[in-house]
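Escalation from tier 1.

The customer reports that the assembly of two entities below gives different structure tokens on two consecutive runs. Tier 1 could not reproduce it. I'm attaching the input and our single run for tier 2 to review.
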Amino acid sequence: MSHAASTDRDFEPPLVLTARNVTKSYADRVVLRGVSLELRAGERLALTGASGSGKSTLLNCLGGVDRPDAGSIRFENIFLETLDSDGLTEVRRRDIGTIFQFFHLLPTLTAAENVELPLQLNGVAAKERAERVRSLLERVGVTDRADAFPGQLSGGEMQRVAIARALAHRPTVLLADEPTGNLDSRNGAIILELLRELSDETDTALVLVTHSGAAAQICHREIHLRDGQIAGEREKD
Amino acid sequence: MAANNQTVLRILWSRFAWRHWRLSPVSSLLLLMILALGVAAFFSIRLANRAAVASFQNFTDLITSQSDGLITAPVGDLSETILPELRQLLGNEPVNIVPVLESSAVPPRRDENEALLSRPTFQMLGLDLPALVNLDSQQDNRSGWFGSATSDSTNNSEKGFSPVLQNPLSVFISEALAKHDGLKIGSPLPLIINEHPVQLRVAGIIPNDPKQPAAPANLLIMDLPALQQLTDKTGRLDCVEFVLEDGPRRAEHWATIKKKLEAVNSPNAPRWIVSSPTDRRSSAATMTQAFRLNLTILSLLAFLVGLYLVFQGLDGAVVRRRNEIAVLRSLGVTSRQIQNAWLVEAAAIGFAGGLLGLGLGWLGAQVAVKMVGKTVNALYLTFPIWFHAHERRGWFS
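Tier 1 run:
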């Protein structure tokens, strides 16, 4: 598992994501108004707020899925606004893992094949792919379901596979949009704990969009959005 | 390092497109069949069109290939009285003059409800058969078809031209018609000619030559005077054909003859129109062109509808798989790679559907050619079929 490098001068992990004055509108509606944040390697950040506060839009901008109308997003040493579509795609392929509320596993692939796909897209050799897939499925506790198709998996199992897929290519940042939104409380708790453990084990930064207070609890920091602006920020003790 | 485009395409094809097809075989097959049917409709009509005209063209090519030219009336028909005049005009030119009369006939109605167009239309050709037989025996000194064993009667009087002498209502039919209707030499053949019912008698069957196109099933050949009488055209002809003897100067002789024929024509009131078999073949093709074009356009419409439905089908598939596309994009597949994968999928459907369509079209053409041919016969075939016994004289000598 990779570890983020820390400088000799301080023990703060390096910044992996920096957003400055990000603004985004859809038609005439302003969704984000000058949002700024920073994320360090291995750090877990919760984005909370009511529906329509701009959480998912901010997440999409951070992941290069949406382009902000103004402001800047720096991903490690790359300014996302300088990249074209293919460039953004490359960043997503290489450095970002995404977890969705509705799992979004690919239905024609088995659990193992879903986890393997990011590795294939990153040109990882077959032998190493097989080993990583096996290891990840074991870590998330779905080894016996490796050959099942998503239609044959429970909600909890699907989200575990989705987490494994998101981490397969060892991304720098994990973006999770309401990962427990479609799970019962028990499975939700299991998934949150898994995210926390894996984030620590792999030193992967996590941005977690959530309505759930319990989800926010696994994070080091919480940013609360209201009407597209940061209404509050707190760090977990 | 990113996987190259080929690897990504292979993954998208094998793990997405192909699996979607396998998981939904009915809808995949339906999409394929829609395109195949469109291709089949277009292809079968094209084939049928070509076959319907080609069968006549091939046959006219065959029978006029030895004919060097002909004359027809500018309006209406020609008088038989021009024959001695032509002989005198052409003097010692090495040419045989073959008078021809054409007509058509239909079989009688089988019942009150039978429609006209459902009955076959026969093309009747009236030729000076004795002259042709004599021509043949003079030229080649060989016994031709008349004397051959095509008659199934051991009675010598049944062979050769004698049946025609005994019964002027004798007719020579094609092998195809004989097989189709179970006709033999001596069989009756009732027809309606010139709105009168007539009972013809089969005097001979034109044998198929494997090296040449077969005589059309609707071709009937009679002695010229008999057909003139049946059609109330005694003393009238539709055309006069000129057949030069083989030789190195054949083209030169024809040019001379053509000049002589045109020389007696007054520009304001031409007595006849001199033309070549090529001119008449193209005229026949032109007449049926509108009909064939209509069929082609209709079949093209079927093809376009098939294409449109396939486009809609693929469009629907893109909408259904929109979620999958979005996930692939989030995982780092470029939009170009996804586009290429869809193009490959569409090309595969197109190729498979097209191949299937060609096969179905060929099968459909077997049915369509009969229908098209029948309609072309019934609606258009008043153009004359020139018969030249020189090449096919095996039929009569």
